[in-house]
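Consider one such protein record:
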Amino acid sequence: MHKKMDENFLNVLYIEHTDKIGVLKDDKDERVSIILGTDKTLVERKREGKTYLLVPLTKNHTFVCKGNCIDVDGKRIKSEIFFRKDGTQWIEIDKETLSKVA
């Protein structure tokens, strides 16, 4: 009964979810996971070979765009591709940056 209730709860919260902690979606095209302990999300587009850091556009975060980088909460992230979509700041990140944020 408890497992069924948990599954129903997850189905209400998420369009998709897996049994892996922090992973909301993982298929052949895309992996979506939360960075545990934060409100940030990672989207890995497997076919494109691109990874995006998603930061919610809330009062909890500040953003300053500076050419080929963006400052998020005072921390500089080197990226030439960043845009806003669906209430979040999307920032394309490389493997080096990924190791720093995840």
User: Anything to note?
Assistant: Helices lie at 2-13, 95-101. The two ends are 34 Å apart (CA to CA).
